[in-house]
Amino acid sequence: MTTRTENDALIDALTDAQISEQLNPGGFYAFKLRDRVETIDLRDPDETRPARKKGTVRVDDMPSFVHYYRKHCDAQSEVYVDIQAGVITAVLDAHEGWVSEEERGYTPRWGEHRLTLRLAETDAWRRWTSLDRQFLKQAAFADFIDDNRADIRKPTAADMLELVQQFQAKTKVTFSSATLLASGDRRLTFEEETTAGGGAKGSIEVPSTLELGIAPFEDSEPYVVTARFRYRIQGGALYMGIWLDNATDVRRDAVRTVVAKLQEELGIVVMRGTPA
User: Which phi-psi region, left, alpha or beta, contains residue 259 (left: φ > 0; alpha: ψ -120 to 50)?
Assistant: First the structure.
């Protein structure tokens, strides 16, 4: 048994059709050529509008999202947010909802005209979160702290500069132990390396925590993020790192704050999740 396709039926229909020798501009023509159908489209693309809007527009900040949404939305448009990913998606031609008591039912639409905002992380946020739970050698860690002192609220900039200078100056020492002080800070004990041996001993006091002031996204305000110092002494060498305590919670709250601003400015409800 042979199954006929729509194309087969079209070929049969065109077999006896008479095709004009002269084709008129503005027309769309189909004709049989051996075992296939050929088409000729003479419509002027400048005079033909798309049947509907479709495609996904991606913007980089909240003002751009607001501008495009206002231009293309209607009463049935829907907006979703993926809190974890920091992505806000508007379905501008979403399905129409309840019409009225007289016209019960819902009108489906294509859902193919979309607007997406992926919240952009700030450079400072990327730098600190990339270092989270990573140990660096003493000199590299001191350079990182020096380069990013502007993000540190506590201790003061002067105190952090002094700490960095101590670490940068004490590269040829052997660290032996760390003592926990009553304040919660640590005192790292070291001995100067000399050719004769028996070098001078000293110590460096390291704060237990840092208080950072950084914004997770370009569209959000700075947040207070707590960073705890961590250290390892291996073979006399010192390795240091930071543990960010509340970075995940701060990032999620920053997304929720941006969503709240969008809801207020556009007068919409943003649903949690992702559109189908």
Answer: alpha
- Over the chain, what is the mean pLDDT? 82
Residue 117 pairs with which residues in a beta bridge? 59, 88
CA distance 272 to 252: 12
What was the pLDDT predicted at 160?
Answer: 82
Q: Which residues pair with 33 in a beta bridge?
A: 36
45 SS3 class: helix
Residue 2 CB coordination number (10 Å): 4
Question: How far apart are alpha carbons 73 and 94 in whole angstroms?
Answer: 10
The rounded distance, in Å, linking the Cα atoms of 49 and 237 is: 70
pLDDT in tens, 180-193: 766 677 777 777 76
Q: Measure the CA–CA gap between 208 and 224, rounded to whole angstroms.
A: 16
pLDDT at 262: 96
Please give the Cα distance from 146 to 163 (Å, whole number): 9
Name the one residue in this structure whose structure tokens are 């660290």: 175
Residue (of 62, 63, 71) closest to 113 by Cα position: 71
d(CA 275, CA 252): 20
Structure tokens at 96: 């129409």
> E-strand spans in the chain?
28-33, 36-41, 55-59, 78-82, 87-91, 113-118, 136-137, 152-154, 173-180, 186-192, 201-206, 209-214, 223-234, 237-244, 270-272
Cβ within 8 Å of residue 162, ≥6 positions away? none
